[in-house]
Specification:
Number of strands: 11
Shape: globular
Strand content: 15-25%
Structural class: alpha/beta
Helix content: 25-40%
Largest sheet: 9 strands, mixed
Radius of gyration: 16 Å
Length: 202
């Protein structure tokens, strides 16, 4: 699959590594192409290339919005039309101040993915990967009990199937928990985020 990632921070690079190891062609957007290209080489990502935003959009049918919450609106305004694209939303409503303090943004009880869906109205949105932690990216899907579950949610069955296929190639187990309204259980404070360990599929 061709996967486009917007954002070369911790989440963006972690997802690039996950998809690259699974053999997918990954295109990751950056305004600092030389610096990001060097980072990708240092990490041994052979199937991943840095590119401008418009090239990433054109190259992939699966797009990942891996920028910070307060950068999503600016990113969406910069994008060309997304008709026929699938938007994978790993965003959590966190904001970080100049001192590094992190707070949860008040979304007035709306699911965060409903807000993101309004920013990319031509795309089919799937909430996924927002509950992954850095150790999960590094250690992979296998545990002594079984494989780690990757819960997802969305309103478009075909898009959910496509993202589920992507997840399977990484070794994690995709589980659809419902539609966008149901995705609140995946957010900070949601039921599935309160578990002491990830969900495991035997």
């Amino acid at each position: 699959m061709d996967v486009g990632i917007f954002g070369a921070g911790l989440i963006g690079l972690s997802l690039a590594g996950l998809f690259d190891r699974a053999g997918h062609s990954v295109h990751i957007a950056s305004r600092h192409l030389e610096e990001l290209t060097a980072t990708l080489a240092d990490r041994g990502l052979r199937h991943t290339r840095a590119a401008p935003v418009d090239e990433v959009t054109d190259a992939a049918s699966l797009l990942v919005g891996a920028v910070q919450w307060n950068q999503l609106a600016a990113l969406a305004a910069e994008l060309p039309p997304l008709d026929g694209k699938i938007w994978i939303d790993p965003a959590n409503p966190f904001e970080r101040d100049a001192y590094g303090n992190v707070t949860v943004v008040d979304t007035d009880s709306r699911p965060t993915s409903a807000i993101v869906a309004e920013l990319v109205p031509k795309a089919q949105l799937v909430k996924a990967f927002n509950n992954f932690t850095t150790p999960m990216y590094r250690s992979g899907p296998l545990t002594s009990l079984g494989r780690i579950v990757a819960p997802m949610a969305g309103d478009h069955p075909a898009a959910l199937c496509r993202v589920a296929e992507l997840v399977k190639t990484t070794g994690f187990v995709p589980v659809v928990i419902g539609n966008i309204d149901d995705s609140v259980v995946l957010e900070p404070g949601g039921a599935l985020r309160q578990l002491s360990i990830p969900l495991i599929a035997p």
